[in-house]
Amino acid sequence: MASSVVDGAKEVLFEAISTLIDVDRNCRYVVIGGWCPYLRKCNGYSHPGTFDVDILFEKAYEKYELSEYIIAMMSKEYYPSAKHSFQLLKKINVGAEGFIYNVDLLHPGMIKENPDLFVDHLDLDVFVDKFKGEKYKEKSIILPGSEIIFDEILFDMYELGGLKFNLLTYEGMFLTKTISCQKVKRERDCYDIFLGFKSGEISSEKIRTFCKKYSYINASVEDFIEYINNPENKFDEKVLRFSGGSKESASKYIIDNITA
């Protein structure tokens, strides 16, 4: 039994990755999202943790690529989400309460090439509704612009409690959060980016190289710099909510590092 909500998420992470290794040891995948800053950490700063598991699969843009994995997860009492067809849900007991956790299945790609966002992986013999006659399909969802994670190998092997898995680097995290941090209710993404630069594990030289090599990366980084430069977006205030009261200007620190 998990002792905290974050520990419950760790149980899901362990089971999701262990199952994947059992199904296909050679599968190229990366654990992304909040696990990167939470596990890698940064001296002098804490992280609130993350409460779901996001897995990016290199080949999941191909239909039914994840069918065997999804079946294996369902055999371990992970259930399809009625609302989000790219999620698998699991109940974990934390103390005296039960909590529902989600595993998100993602694939790389560009929205212009795949405007539908989703790829089908498993057909279930269940109707979505009785009018259209459409049956439920478990899917993956696109993570726009994330091909660079595999192209430039922006992940490495991380070990947690004896389990070894591919974890996103801080550089990869930054490049996948430049847009998401600008969205409503994604304030912690701002803090995650700040931690990445504070850790010293984001190379400004590499970022500039990526910007020259990939036009879509250049566009997203330029958009991010414009965003944090605008006081109306309150980037520093969003970081301050998680940083323990530091009065340092997070936006200035990041821009100074990017342009160094």
Describe this structure as you would to a colleague.
- The chain has 10 helices and 9 strands.
- It starts with a helix and ends with a helix.
- The strands form 2 sheets. Strands 1, 2, 3, 4, 5, 6 and 7 form a 7-stranded mixed β-sheet that branches. The protein has a two-stranded antiparallel sheet with strand order 8-9.
- Helices cover 38% and strands 25% of the residues.
- It folds into 2 domains: 168 residues, no CATH class; 78 residues, no CATH class.
- It has 260 residues and is α+β, with helices and mostly antiparallel strands.
- α1 crosses α3 and α7 packs across α8.
Strands, helices and their partners?
Layout: H1 5-23, E1 29-32, H2 35-40, E2 53-57, H3 67-74, E3 79-80, E4 87-94, E5 97-109, E6 118-127, E7 135-144, H4 147-151, E8 155-160, E9 163-168, H5 170-177, H6 187-198, H7 204-213, H8 215-229, H9 235-240, H10 250-258
Parallel strand pairs: 2-5, 5-7
Antiparallel strand pairs: 1-2, 3-4, 4-5, 6-7, 8-9
Helix pairs in contact: 1-3, 5-6, 7-8
The radius of gyration is 19 Å
Order of helices and strands: HEHEHEEEEEHEEHHHHHH
Strand content: 15-25%
Mean pLDDT: 94
The number of strands is: 9
Quickly list its features.
260 residues, alpha+beta, 2 domains, seven-stranded mixed β-sheet, two-stranded antiparallel ribbon, 10 helices, globular
